[in-house]
Amino acid sequence: MIKSLIKPVTYLTSADFRLRFKVWRWRVMQTAVGRYILRVFYGNKNAALGKDVFGMHFRSPIGLAAGIDRNGELIDAMAAAGFGFVEVGSVTPRKQGGSPHPYLIELKGDHALLHRAQTESAGVEQVIENIKRHKSRMVVGCNIVKGFTTPDDEAPRDYLRLFRPLYQYVDYFTVNICCNTTTKSYIPTDKAEIMAILQPLFEFRRGQNQYRPILLKISPDMSDEQIDMMTDIMLETPLDGIVAVAGSTGRYGLENSAKKMHKLGRTPGTINGHPLKQRALDVVRRIHTRSQGTYPIIGCGGISTYQDVKDMLDAGATLVQICTEFIYNGGKTIRTLNKALGEEIKEGQTQKK
Ligand SMILES: Cc1cc2nc3c(=O)[nH]c(=O)nc-3n(C[C@H](O)[C@H](O)[C@H](O)COP(=O)(O)O)c2cc1C
Fold first, then answer.
1. Number of Cβ atoms within 10 Å of the Cβ of 135
2. Residue 146 maps to which CATH number?
3. What's the confidence (pLDDT) of residue 351?
4. What is the atom index within ligand 1 of the atom nearest the CA of 274?
5. Which domain holds residue 306?
6. 3-state secondary structure at position 214
7. In total, how many domains does the chain have?
8. pLDDT band at 12 (very low <50, low <70, confident <90, very high)
9. Distance between Cα 294 and ligand 1 center (Å)
10. Which of 18, 72, 84, 88 is least surrounded by Cβ atoms within 10 Å, i.e. has the fewest?
11. What are the CA-CA distances from residue 131 to residues 61, 142, 152, 276, 298 (Å)?
């Protein structure tokens, strides 16, 4: 009886705890000694992995997706560990938190996570203070999102409120329009609604000396027609690229966790990790085909092995991001992926000779 009570509790809380503990450990590794250790054990010293995209140099095409370094506290540690770029956030205008517990549920058999929390953020002012402190030369993106309590029709004001003060401190922006981890879902799919968010950002950027690429992060739950519409927005406006994809509210591909999902009932939240892979590849391929490979796409969703990275690049992604795999396996992942990529590049060069 007691055993059957404890088991679900352990399984329900372990992923929350693990992520918070990992973030704390990475924060410790931000010190000079910590960074030295990370560079020795994980660091990327292979210049051949470098890639120029958006007029910037990425030391590796593999980056850390939004959701891990929410407040810009781990940038130097991630650079030392070998990531080519980090997407800080999502950041909200004001501090917000108060995730229901447990907010992250591990679906181990499927190498997936159920994420069911509103965006937890220290707020834009604190995030700027944190970002200002970083010393490494790695590309730093910032993922911006409207506040949880902001009415949907006031969302454009929130995005601008974030974009303006952050502009001089980050290298690119991702406009996140996938607020679907709670029952209070906000995913604008109407062109006018999306342009109401983007247009003020384009106008602000026009008056600046430095150019900051603006990307749109899209949901895998959008229909193919909606994905095409997002691509057309990219082709017709000054939007610089797309990040595809965020977590899915769909419950497909959960072969081993179906029983656990049943136990959880109809809980809201998004599935992240392996079950997303096929949809993420399809979405990236669709955008790449429609835009004839003329725009950079950041591919994200279900990447854990080097084969996954390759599949995503073959589908048309220019850069890739990992999230769930990092929560599962931490720094080991980026070392393994960078090493495999380096070996493939070397092999390709040898064959050419
Ligand atoms: C715990 C967790 C928190 C996340 N938070 C955010 C977020 O704040 N903003 C965002 O755009 N995406 C967020 N994501 C989505 C990821 O950035 C990524 O798009 C998604 O998880 C798919 O990648 P993956 O399969 O490698 O996990 C989060 C994902 C997880 C698992």
1. 11
2. 3.20.20.70
3. 73
4. 25
5. 2-352
6. strand
7. 1
8. very low
9. 26
10. 18
11. 21, 10, 28, 30, 22
